[in-house]
Write a structure and sequence with these properties.
single chain, about 210 residues, alpha/beta, Rossmann fold, five-stranded parallel beta sheet, two-stranded antiparallel ribbon, binds flavin mononucleotide
């Protein structure tokens, strides 16, 4: 069965633009794959602990005879969720020019040396098969275009982090300037929805086989 992993991390619950827009993305995927199962991982409501010393233990060489403890077990679980997903949908705010720390904690659990990537002389090589990843980013100000007055460490960071494990087919949807008043917000939402319609028209959306 097709599976969609929906990751959200805004602390603003129902008020969150990134959560709402990423839900629109999931709806579109579901329109073509009504049988798909959606797993929601809400990193704001149920934050992940930071990786701990059990995790460092893997770096020293995991012992297959010992059950994985602490954050290593959590890492196994989160990696399994990612491996089983045919498509990944992420809704994230921009927090201080990059992803919120809640999403960073998830990344710390799934980018695992020897498990989801290996170092090679040419650089880190991902061990997971590629599949589509859709990312809705909400920001209060602008970080793209000629009026941007702040750096964007979010987009390149997510590309590098997810690319490390082998996820290279990323589709970004920006919702910028979401604190600039009702009209500006409505216009931005319409623009992002139009892009979504072009990228994921309600017909013929293929998930990974
Ligand atoms: C801790 C924090 C840091 C933020 N940092 C930025 C930032 O660096 N750039 C920006 O444009 N907006 C920033 N914002 C504004 C949010 O990105 C904006 O409110 C966005 O709509 C939040 O996404 P959401 O609607 O999905 O919750 C920040 C908000 C918070 C709470």
């Amino acid at each position: 069965m097709k599976k969609i992993l929906h990751i959200v991390c805004s602390p603003r619950a129902e008020g969150s633009y990134s959560t709402r827009f990423s839900s629109r993305i999931v709806e579109r995927l579901m329109a073509s794959h009504p049988e798909a199962e959606v797993l929601v991982r809400d990193l704001a409501s149920v934050p992940l602990p930071q990786v701990d010393s059990d995790y460092a233990y893997t770096l020293a060489g995991a012992r297959p005879d010992v059950a994985a403890p602490g954050s290593l077990a959590r890492s196994d679980h989160l990696i399994a969720e990612l491996e089983q997903a045919d498509a990944v949908v992420i809704g994230t705010p921009m927090h201080n020019y990059t992803v919120p720390s809640s999403l960073k904690a998830w990344i710390d659990h799934v980018l695992r040396i020897g498990r989801t990537f290996v170092p090679t002389p040419e650089g880190k090589q991902g061990l997971l098969p590629d599949r589509p990843v859709y990312v809705a980013v909400a920001s209060g100000g602008l970080y793209l275009g000629e009026h941007a007055r702040q750096p964007d460490f979010l987009t390149p960071y997510l590309k590098a982090a997810l690319g490390t494990v082998g996820l290279r087919t990323l589709h970004f949807f920006a919702l910028q300037g979401m604190v600039r008043g009702e009209e500006a917000v409505a216009a931005e939402w319409r623009g992002a929805m139009a892009l979504l319609e072009r990228q994921l028209p309600l017909r013929a959306i293929a998930l990974a086989d």
